[in-house]
Protein: 4Fe-4S ferredoxin-type domain-containing protein
Organism: Desulfuribacillus alkaliarsenatis
Amino acid sequence: MLEKKIDRRNLLKIGTTSAVVGTALLFTGCEEEAAAPIFTDATKTAILMDTSLCVECHACRVACQNHNALPVEQSYIKFESVEKGSFPKVEYHLSRNSCMHCTDAPCVDICPVKALYKGDTGFTHMNYDACIGCGMCKMQCPYDVPVIAEVDSARKMFKCQGCEDLITEGQEPACVNTCIANSLKYGPVEEMIDAAKARVEVLKVKYPKANVYGVTQQDGLGLILILRDDAKEFKLVYKDKVTSLA
Ligand code: SF4
Ligand code: SF4
Ligand code: SF4
């Protein structure tokens, strides 16, 4: 399942977008293939977010900006919220919008300069120096995560890069470590999924639509979400962009 070669097939699928393909081939050459991922099911980890516990204090967002020395206008974490019902029965639900760290990550396949790569925990890391800001990852991301912006006269892509420095030292990502509400956890992916399923059973008593998001999408995500409502309420239903461009 984890064996993925560079998507020459996908490049051909988007061949109608000739400018894009031209850019890709300029940098990759037709025959080049991506290195095989070095993560396995046993080494994969995930961030688990229990959205029912989040108090939307934005401490995770600020910790992330500090840790990654981001320009103030850039943020790797955004929130999607939805209000339902009417007074006095109003519900407020939210979810996190950031890189989902897809196991099957089309951004990695498409990047013409290999600025994006999978780490041994399955997270999608990136090399900002290599990025040329072409935006091809943004076109292919099923979740519309990458943001292209100009900083110091250079176009770059911005997204959560999975705190590679911290997790390779055995630490938690900065956002997880900062959460004051115990909404964020980090650990082996199977442990996170089991914890999510157990929590959802509790939540279903009050929220019948409670569900775990991220177990199957893109062969499994590195950001697992415990949601109180349907994923589509949070714009989480991913789009098969490759197919739509074919
Ligand atoms: S994992 Fe690291 S880079 Fe990603 S959102 Fe959390 S703090 Fe930011
Ligand atoms: S969510 Fe988008 S940017 Fe993140 S790994 Fe998946 S395809 Fe790449
Ligand atoms: S914007 Fe950067 S990371 Fe995205 S595909 Fe282009 S070079 Fe790769």
